[in-house]
Amino acid sequence: MRFFSLQAKLETKALKAKRPGFTDDRYNETSYYIENALRKVYPYYFTFTTFTKGRWVGERILDVFAREFRAHPAEEYERCIRAGTLTVNYEKVPTDYKLKHNDLLANVVHRHEVPVTCHPITIVHLDEDVVVVNKPASIPVHPCGRYRHNTVVFILAKEYNLKNLRTIHRLDRLTSGLLLFGRSPKKARQMEHQIRNRLVQKEYICRVEGEFPEGIIECKEPIEVVSYKIGVCKVSAKGKDCVTIFQKLGYNGLTSIVLCKPKTGRMHQIRVHLQYLGYPVVNDPLYNHEVFGPMKGKGGDLGGKTDEDLVKDLIHIHNAENWLGMDGDSDLSMFNSRKGDLEDSLEVLEPKGDDESDQLSREPSPCDENCENNTSVPCESTPHPLHCRSDREKVTVATQTGHEAPDLSFNPDKMTVDKHCYECKVRYRDPKPQDLVMYLHAWKYKGPGWDYETELPEWARVDWIDSDPLG
């Protein structure tokens, strides 16, 4: 057994040494299809691994899974252990096996990913050192939580053949805009150093509730991370220094377009500062919510809630991954999603009918009336700056990188079903368009000797009015 523990350690170290790249067999685990203006992933088998935590040592493996990983009842984990799909150091063990230090737990699951928008990732700049893209809202930067293939790094690798990219900075899942990757370790370290030492000027555009004040508004309130597990922050005297400069660019009678210049790089900085000022991002599902109290966090007023109460209420109200969009690994997602979270999700679960007519339509639908979604080219919006802009030639994967987009039509032969998979037994209602976008966009980044800028989304026009403000 000691040999397998050592082998597991070596394999894990070898895997980490290869980061941030993945082998081709990882990219080939599954593929995409477009349905109802969404990029979807065919379910596939995946092995989650984790080393035994200190508090688990000496406990029975079945007891640990029944308590720590609530995706399934204890009976299901017992079945997996007996079947050998849930192993220790890649070996089958009895259900009363007591965990030891450095044991590697591996759980083979039939994985279902969350849909994202079918809007394409477009290239802003590409050379031998860096890749700069315009990230659509709803797509996480890298694998996290319930997202793996539906992430920027996997899509760039699988469809653009841009592999082994180094993440220079990150954007929240629902935030769109400028995203930089290094193609060499040296360049990535250089640009990371520039950002870390505040040598990079960043400009974001957002749409906030109400009429934002005139002039230059500087917010210097410190920000504290309330919970890394679910990714939520607040203004707090115990937080780290934080500075954001805001300037109103226009007001349409209901909402304001605001230019944001973060001088520091704290988690959710712009969103938290806008919440504190009383002008939250219009459709921010986290910081524009009464879960922060009657004032929704304005002026730091959380309605008397403790941090523990806030986190508890947030998890209770919405699925921790789909709603909060966790951007990092956590216990909540290590071994599949928790059944309780699935049931509380914004995405309504419906029983899967036996009748073929009860299945979701496989007909692709356009993102909007100006967007043609065929089976070979992902659909695309027409972005433009604050005021009108003439139409541009459609930009596709092929025009940017010379790699033709794959066939993204639905293929029923690729739709695997596992009789023991909980998620195969339920059906998710597709998220609505308003669930896939937040009105916050990374517009411009400028550093020593370089600067990049994206086109702006439609909602960034000063005179733009939300046609369906209530969703």
Automatic annotation (TrEMBL):
Protein name: Pseudouridine synthase
Catalytic residues (positions): D172
CDD domains: PseudoU_synth_ScRIB2 (cd02557)
Keywords: Isomerase, mRNA processing, Phosphoprotein
EC number(s) recorded for this UniProt protein: 5.4.99.-
Catalytic activity from the UniProt record: a uridine in RNA = a pseudouridine in RNA
Summary of the function given for this chain in its UniProt record: Pseudouridine synthase that catalyzes pseudouridylation of mRNAs. Responsible for synthesis of pseudouridine from uracil.
BP term (GO), one: enzyme-directed rRNA pseudouridine synthesis
Location of the Pseudouridine synthase RsuA/RluA-like domain: 129-275
Pfam families for the chain: PseudoU_synth_2
Top-level taxonomic group: Eukaryota
InterPro entries the record matches: PsdUridine_synth_cat_dom_sf, PsdUridine_synth_RluA-like_CS, PsdUridine_synth_RluC/D, PsdUridine_synth_RsuA/RluA, RluA_PseudoU_synthase
Region (Disordered): 346-385
Species annotation: Photinus pyralis
Keyword set includes Glycoprotein: no
Family: Belongs to the pseudouridine synthase RluA family.
GO-annotated molecular function: pseudouridine synthase activity; RNA binding
